Amino acid sequence: MELTCLNHNLNKKLFLFSCCMPVKGSARGAIYDLQRDDIELVPNSLIDFIGYINKKPVQIILDEWGDNEIAWEYLELLIEKEFVFFSSEDHFPKLSNKCFNDDTSKIEYMTLVVSEFIANNFKMILERIEYLGVKRLHLHWPLEADKGKILELIHVLEHSSVVNLSISLPYQKDFNPNSIKEQRLTNLYFYSSPYLESIEIYKVNLYFLKHSEQDFLLPKAGINMISINHRAFLTGRNANLGLYKTVFVNANGILQLNSIDLKEYGSILDSDIENNLFLLSEVWNLKRDKIMPCRKCELKYACTANFIPEYDHKKKTYFVNCNYNPNTNEWSS
Known about the structure:
alpha/beta, Outer Surface Protein A, domain 3, three-stranded antiparallel sheet, elongated
């Protein structure tokens, strides 16, 4: 089919769709399909091949690569996946590298550890949530969950700016998610579960995890942490996608980047919270192209893992201890 396609377009040029973004890694590459919100993991040699043949006449491509079996495999993949098109000219303008973040929120994603302090000050904290424009809120219960308290806090959120709500709590046998009458609830996590399972009940995803509470909150990369879309890609090109506009609020109301962050960025109740956000933004805007091993990773513009970069004064570079090795393409637990 690919040969027929090429023969029918001998007088045209081959173009890579502007929404398909090739990214090279240390041991392999990836093509981000920003229109289909998908990713194709490919050899780095294919990324180089795309750069060589893009915008070239089909006849010249066939003259140069017609006898190369690997080149034919690559062309077959590009055509089959609809990463390329044939035309006399490029009809699709190149996507701007400038980050467009159409959300005016100061904070988009917040994890809030529910404690007695948080519960007692929740109405004031809700005012902060509204001021910050939080869209995605995760409520984490570190102790035996009180269903009544869950319902009480969620009721307070009823008219907030939050559009996506998730909850994590210790394993609860026979917990009925329908008791939480909240359409914004999408995910419910039960950590310290005796078994591993994921099901959907009343349009809510229930995840039963064997992780301890500490392991559940621990930053970790994984295939489920990959976000492929135009907005995420551009954010990843211009900032740290895993940390950008996100904050972790611990049981004492202190702002941090994640559950193991050693730094504190003030309280969510501080009157000068804008200064706290400025300090956070210095880390948010540190691009993964400047962090090891992220800058060698084919997933760097799609990974939402919230590792905190540290500076190595000897090597004069930032680094994170990631559980994915881009040199071997292996995941560690």
